[in-house]
Amino acid sequence: MAFHLRKDGDVTVVDVDGQLIVGNRQELKQAVLEELDGGARKFLIDFSNTGYIDSSGLGVLVSLSKKIREQGGELRLASLNEDLRTLFELTKLDTLFRIGADREEALQGF
Q1: Given 7, 8, 48, 74, which residue has the most CB atoms within 10 angstroms?
Q2: Which fold has domain 2-107?
Q3: DSSP secondary-structure letter at 61?
Q4: In the chain, domain spans
Q5: Which residues of 60-73 are buried (b: 16+ CB within 10 A; e: fewer)?
Q6: What's the burial of 46, exposed, middle or buried (CB within 10 Å: 0-12/13-18/19+)?
Q7: What is the pTM of this model?
């Protein structure tokens, strides 16, 4: 599991490689919060290379979304595979996040 942060204009893009699970969720949270503290307000988490997110991973996404919104920012998601999209629909989290089919779609109008 690895996270890669980079800038795409004024958007902080986080690529998640592997699974987002209890063992690594704090690493993702810390990385995003450091960017938020540094002034970043637009975040996109790209799940192109992610096959699984457990409940703690979902929890950290909700927590980050709340914290970012409180600071006047937005967290978007991109590239969920079919299983992950179903998970977000079943948990109604698809109503909390703006989810793009791919990175380009998620970045539109950001």
Answers
A1: 74
A2: Transcription Regulator spoIIAA (3.30.750)
A3: H
A4: 2-107
A5: bbeebbeebeeeeb
A6: buried
A7: 0.95
